[in-house]
């Protein structure tokens, strides 16, 4: 059984089909949806909240849908909310407050700003609500009970190692453009740090000829890549914080007449669109595949168990990351495109 509750903004969540399908219709702006639990007879229904960043990126859509499916299996009433963008922390703060008012005993949140959401999280915890961060750590990390996430620094390190090896293989001097997320979002900062470490560079290295924030958005990725190319036409390595930004960068490279064989593009996410339409044809040379299904599934299960008298989740759960490429290089462990397709999400 499913239904909806009123919330912030206005949207109607289309009814989803069930089964093994991973991605369904998108919701608009900020909405609070309600998934009522199934017909379990032995467990009392508990209420858990899920707050994501936005739903133009299939990563967040997949995370929500797996959480909804898991909630049905676990007799959980799931309240869901999403913002308008990766930096919409104000909507997240309001969602936390509404979920506490609606009786959530636990909340899963992917913070849009690692610091800005902390006061609302701390208020919820003082009210007895367990809070687990998904994907993006809070600052400080102790603001939440637990973190279920990709090792974002490791993800960046993997693509940095790959890009460095490709440059060495081709005998080229790297001229790197970095398309980052936004200030204050720890996951993006960790990926940047990891990329630089994997490439063997420090912040401020001369090899980095330009960097800009994209907010993880395709069109902003295209715009900032076009600007960087206008300033430095000989860019030959492009790091992007996620695959929407990578597709935007690829579009700008093509518009500028760049031969894609002359540039190495690396990213993080591992969604089906990117694996099939980016990595397989070689426009995206490698991506670090992460697994939102694990974050959602384990998060709902952990908070449901805690609400029924189990231990409140604590510490860090690494939900996995693998480097996916169609052009492997010596010395950098990777999986092939077939593996990436079997394990991708969002399509």
UniProtKB/TrEMBL annotation:
InterPro entries: Peripla_BP_I, SBP_2_dom. It holds the Pfam family Peripla_BP_4. It comes from the Bacteria. Keywords: Signal. SUPFAM superfamilies: Periplasmic binding protein-like I. One of its GO terms (molecular function) is carbohydrate binding. It is found in: Cell envelope. Gene3D superfamilies: 3.40.50.2300. Residues 48-310 form the Periplasmic binding protein domain. The keyword Signal applies. The keyword Signal applies. PANTHER family: D-ALLOSE-BINDING PERIPLASMIC PROTEIN-RELATED (PTHR46847:SF1). Belongs to the bacterial solute-binding protein 2 family. This is Mannose-binding protein /fructose-binding protein /ribose-binding protein. The lineage of its organism: Bacteria, Bacillati, Actinomycetota, Actinomycetes, Propionibacteriales.
